[in-house]
Design brief:
It is found in: Cell membrane. It comes from Desulfofundulus kuznetsovii (strain DSM 6115 / VKM B-1805 / 17). It is a multi-pass membrane protein. InterPro entries: DUF2179 (IPR019264), N-reg_PII/ATP_PRibTrfase_C (IPR015867), UPF0750_membrane (IPR051461), YitT (IPR003740). The chain folds into two domains: about 190 residues, no CATH class; about 90 residues, Alpha-Beta Plaits (2-Layer Sandwich), CATH 3.30.70.120. The protein is built from ten helices and four strands. It is elongated, with a radius of gyration of 24 Å. The two termini are about 15 Å apart.
């Protein structure tokens, strides 16, 4: 059942990614990095189908990946790569082009591809492309994968700018890349619906008791040491929902007006009182 849900998630992600390409990016010549960006350039140079070009470009990448990294990418990666290529070409001739405004196309194309790729990654798949290329390059250079991804995508955008003789299209492609990256993170990490309080106080026990009594939340004491004073003290960690933030602030203020409080976003909390593991 878990394997079925994973493949279903990868399939849904592939369809959304294909829609982003077919509806917005390819018709408006927005080559937003990666294998799909190169395939878009080749499509306008030669008339070759975008999906089959993506598949042809991914074959040597997979060969290099197997050679350098072994079979770590697994069947789901192969499934995601092949299915995306097939779905892109299968839908291309049936879908209308909603807009020829490059700004709208870059934003909405980025939203759909970001949601799609986020789902693919969330369900442990890949679609090949530059993430595989970056992983292979890392074995040669030792550089950070994120930096290599940005470098490879930047090169694709430059190639598209020269090919289409339009640096405006290249700039729109950069917008798509940033929107896509943001949506991928959002899908994988989730919307920040909880907050984490780090509380340093001389009255930590009273604050912890009040949190348990008035908010029905737990508190964890973390060991800390002030580097200036050299004094050891506990730091309380309390995680609450957004609706409880003001109540916890008021509670801390009532107990200790001298408390030092750090408030941080938390993207996902798994466990008692929050999301259960089976829901993640």
């Amino acid at each position: 059942m878990a394997i079925f849900s994973e493949f279903l998630g990868v399939t849904l992600g592939v369809v959304l990614t294909a829609l982003g390409l077919d509806l917005f990016l390819v018709p408006n010549k927005i080559a937003a990095g990666g294998v799909s960006g190169l395939a878009t350039v080749f499509h306008y140079l030669t008339g070759a189908p975008v999906g089959m070009t993506m598949l042809a470009l991914n074959v040597p990448l997979f060969a290099m990946g197997i050679y350098r990294l072994g079979l770590k990418f697994g069947f789901r990666s192969l499934y995601g790569t092949i299915s995306l290529s097939l779905v892109v070409d299968a839908l291309a001739s049936y879908l209308p082009v909603p807009t020829h405004d490059p700004l709208l196309a870059s934003i909405f194309g980025g939203v759909l591809t970001g949601l799609g790729l986020g789902l693919v990654f969330r369900y442990r798949g890949t679609t090949g492309g530059t993430d595989l290329a970056a992983a292979v390059l890392r074995t040669y250079t030792g550089a950070n994968v994120g930096q290599l991804l940005f470098l490879v995508d930047g090169i694709v955008v430059l190639i598209a700018g020269f090919t289409f003789n339009s640096w405006e299209l290249a700039m729109y492609a950069l917008i798509t890349i940033f929107v896509t990256a943001w949506l991928i993170d959002l899908v994988q990490e989730g919307i920040s619906y909880t907050k984490a309080f780090f509380i340093i106080s001389q009255k930590k026990d009273e604050i912890a008791a009040a949190v348990l009594r008035e908010l029905n939340r737990g508190a964890t004491a973390l060991k800390g040491r002030g580097m200036y004073t050299g004094m050891e003290r506990d730091v309380l960690l309390v995680v609450v929902n957004r609706s409880e933030v003001t109540r916890l602030k008021d509670l801390i203020y009532k107990v200790d007006r001298e408390a030092f409080v750090i408030l941080a976003d938390v993207h996902e909390v798994l466990g008692e009182g929050f999301k259960q593991w089976r829901e993640s």
